[in-house]
Design brief:
six-stranded mixed β-sheet; 6 strands; 33% helix
């Protein structure tokens, strides 16, 4: 059985500073660093010691730091891939969240949602985000290893899962999978039918013993 563990990076400075993340290259806070270590411990407990593991990560600092901590626990060097980045919010990146909120144009309830212009200069559309993550996932899933780890972001995770279940990009305009920062989502594929499932979504039990300060 193939298992893919999708990790959302834990607390980063843009969370506590209440600024827009996206491609803004924030780093893990002290609490986030402790949470990343806890994620590594949790995955080490789930993945057999003798398993051949490959790990992929967004190349942004907060995810690379998370992947480094997880990789240390697993004895694996992460492969950094810019295609696994969070959605770019263009000129909003690094600005106060309220700045974006005042200018953001939400997608229509019906009609074109993937290519919708959110009103922020330089921002990616959902289609652009989906296309690059689907491309990365195509290469990741070509790898036959039974255990893989993907370290990414909360928003990007939706399209990691959508690609996993084979959802066509053009059908992904409404899809959303929600998970807290520092969570682990487990995707599995059986060896007989090769059905793919989301076995658990956004598990954060490993963070319960991590001190906040």
């Amino acid at each position: 059985m193939r298992k893919v563990y999708v990790v959302t990076h834990p607390e980063a400075t843009h969370h506590v500073d209440r600024v827009v993340g996206g491609w803004f290259d924030s780093e893990l806070t002290a609490a986030g660093t402790r949470a990343a270590a806890a994620i590594g411990v949790a995955l080490r407990a789930r993945i057999p010691e003798d398993a051949d593991v490959r790990m992929y990560s967004s190349d942004l600092l907060r995810t690379a730091q998370t992947a480094e901590a997880v990789g240390e626990a697993l004895g694996v060097t992460p492969i950094l891939d810019a295609r696994l980045r969070e959605k770019s919010y263009g000129e909003a990146g690094g600005r106060p969240q309220e700045w974006l909120d005042r200018r953001f144009v939400p997608p229509p309830a019906v009609g074109e949602r993937l290519r919708h212009d959110e009103g922020i200069a330089g921002a990616e559309t959902k289609m652009s985000l989906a296309q690059r993550i689907y491309a990365a996932m195509g290469e990741i899933l070509d790898d036959p290893r039974e255990h893989q780890v993907i370290v990414t972001h909360g928003g990007a995770m939706t399209f990691v899962i959508a690609a996993w279940i084979g959802m066509p990009i053009e059908s992904a305009g409404y899809v959303a999978f929600r998970a807290a920062s520092g969570s682990i989502t487990v995707l599995t594929e059986d060896d007989f039918f090769h059905n793919r499932e989301v076995s658990s979504l956004g598990d954060t039990r490993h963070l319960e013993a991590v001190p906040a300060n």
